[in-house]
């Protein structure tokens, strides 16, 4: 069995190294042939086993020819990074060790405490011992943060929500903007808060949540007897990479005694770019910060992280230690499973450690800075193009724009831009995705790959232009 594994694993390494080396020479993405799709969808459960060597071959023939496209330097879709080679090694080794990183005295648990601290140091967030944990992604980090915020607010009202449930609470009101990621609404719905009690506060033209509009809304809501408890700021919105005025939000939350959650899933690491850094002032004053190593850092999926200022808010919300789990090797910090939802937890920290150790702080900073420079360059190229329109100034590494040739009427522009992202994808030379920004159909290019070149940016714009002309 072990010798089979050794030889198949060597084959797998060759296969995957070839795959990674060949990525940039192939089309970014192509629709799957119907027969290949059908074969995967209807594959029967095998009655008998298969040799490991044959499994490696099947990965080569059935999976690797049809990738999502992230990994290619002209993949600009959603927020999906190329996998860092060190992170791939970390994932592989973690699967071989296969602990549950819930707690106990084994390497994975202690490594997680260190890498969470490293992540906090990178983005400039204070890190009390036990002040964070790795999660499946930012959606899960947000659920954990909003649960802690809800329970703190409930405790202030004299309600033990863990015992009595949300029915014992008046509606708790949270404040977001139209640019806040949908995972916040999911969390509010899931935690019984009701999306109706998430108030959408106005933004300025660029998409920053307006602190004065928030102040005014809090005043009227309190006068109406409502119970505000949470403000969500963005450290990089998904549509356009916009960073809210976090210092103003932190001031307001301190005055009003509200929980400030910052969503840095995509953008928190943008703080490492010297040009962008000052936009993040105040991030360190949030009660909680969600960020995603599986985005800008290129840690292989899945890996999110939640950082909090007050560790007891997390432990008070989630700790539930049945007798069979009593064991504390963490010097009073307890198990990670006392700070979040998962009980059996994967060894995520190894791929984070490997990715960060391979690049070092300087390597991560250089990559993030390069992506931001590329985004500013793309923004300039869009502004100079007579048939393209930049929809908001570039703040981090996402560029939102639309195809807007002179003379086209509003109905045509709408129709063309709705279809533009997919039309570019299908042409195979670049991959960009669509969105709606300030009510306008747009595409947005997210730069997460420091190996992207200026030529790649030119190809992206050529493709948008060519697809736009076809659609007209
Ligand atoms: C700004 C922002 N917040 C939250 C999320 C959700 O993160 P995840 O997909 O890791 O759950 C995303 C995903 O793209 C995002 O861009």
From TrEMBL:
Signal peptide: none annotated. Its cofactor is pyridoxal 5'-phosphate. GO terms for biological process: amino acid metabolic process; carboxylic acid metabolic process. The modification N6-(pyridoxal phosphate)lysine is found at residue 295. GO terms for molecular function: aromatic-L-amino-acid decarboxylase activity; pyridoxal phosphate binding. It comes from the Bacteria. The keyword Lyase applies. This is Amino acid decarboxylase.
